[in-house]
Specification:
single chain, 316 residues, alpha/beta, Rossmann fold, 10 helices, 47% helix, 16% strand, globular
């Protein structure tokens, strides 16, 4: 298959102002792409826009909540009119609620499904007709290891990512004849610097310690810049499914070969995770502790600064 080089093409990225989305935007720009970035925060978008403007990258930004289908369609139409038809769509925007099942609310599930799954569907439906008419395009859905392996204390996230993986596989089969490649990215933990923006339920400070450490330690997580290169490569090559990180590859292989053993291991790990407490919900930023500000999370905190994750955080 001929490589789908991004040079001169229009790339739209949901959640493109910080974290993994911003890392993908930087990598796409390095390969000559024009960028359409949308996110919920104008402050985050302003910082990203300024960075790309200084670098001479053609970029358009818009405040948009992917949970609103009409706003998503309007935003992508605006990008297409300004930059040219959308050649590649990266669905990166997502939310994470972390906590035991007894501390989670229906709103946690609703927000995960509406953002992580339906948000991607809305964006795809906005660009699909144009791509089909041109018999060309790439749709890249950022799923997760949590869409292949059920991870304790991440039920809403896992449910939404399982849905996105199944949807992506079925969509890939349907759109192949139209010259459109649907790419499923399945990353494990990445040092995106995003934990401050996640929501923690039950005993937030204890939950945040586990999450922040996992997201920061090098033997558990991969560098987001490395991940972005692999993801953009997969887009250009039209790879059906790309697992990012040896940790994720090992976990998925184990779950495939020995599902009962993996279930037992995860059940054992769950015994040491915090209980539901009083069901309190707090952001990671509001759940900091000496441990999450220690040398153990230095790589994660560095990533937060590099990936624009410190912009627009609530002040407490």
């Amino acid at each position: 298959m001929k490589r789908f080089a991004l040079d001169g093409k229009t790339v739209a990225i949901t959640g493109g102002a910080r974290g993994l989305g911003l890392a993908i935007a930087r990598e796409a720009a390095r390969r000559g792409a024009k960028l359409g970035l949308f996110a919920r925060s104008e402050e985050e978008l302003s910082a990203a826009r300024a960075e790309f403007a200084i670098a001479g990258v053609t970029v358009s930004t818009a405040v948009c909540d992917v949970r609103n289908a009409a706003d998503v369609a309007t935003t992508l139409d605006s990008f297409a009119r300004e930059l040219g038809p959308i050649d590649a769509l990266f669905n990166v925007a997502g939310v994470i609620s972390v906590g035991p099942v007894g501390a989670l609310s229906l709103d946690d599930y609703r927000d995960a499904i509406e953002t992580n799954f339906l948000g991607a569907v809305y964006a795809i439906e906005a660009v699909r007709p144009s791509m089909q008419a041109r018999h060309s395009g790439r749709i890249v859905n950022i799923t997760s290891l949590g869409g292949k392996v059920g991870i304790p204390h991440m039920l809403p996230y896992c449910a939404s990512k399982y849905a996105l993986i199944g949807y992506s596989a079925a969509l890939r089969a349907e759109l192949q004849r139209d010259g459109i490649r649907v790419v499923s990215i399945i990353p494990g933990l990445m040092r995106t610097g995003s934990p401050p923006h996640a929501t923690f339920a039950g005993q937030p400070r204890k939950e945040y310690v586990t999450f922040a450490l996992s997201d920061s330690l090098p033997f558990l997580s991969v560098d987001v810049r490395y991940a972005a290169r692999l993801i953009v490569d997969a887009c250009e090559r039209g790879t059906a499914e790309k697992i990012v990180g040896w940790q994720a590859k090992v976990a998925i292989a184990a779950a495939t070969v020995a599902p009962r053993a993996v279930e037992n291991v995860l059940g054992f790990v769950n015994r040491f995770l915090p209980g539901p407490g009083n069901g309190e919900h707090r952001s990671g930023f509001a759940s900091e502790s000496p441990i999450t500000q220690s040398f153990l999370t230095k790589l994660g905190r560095n990533a937060s600064a590099e990936q624009n994750e410190l912009v627009d955080l609530p002040q407490v």
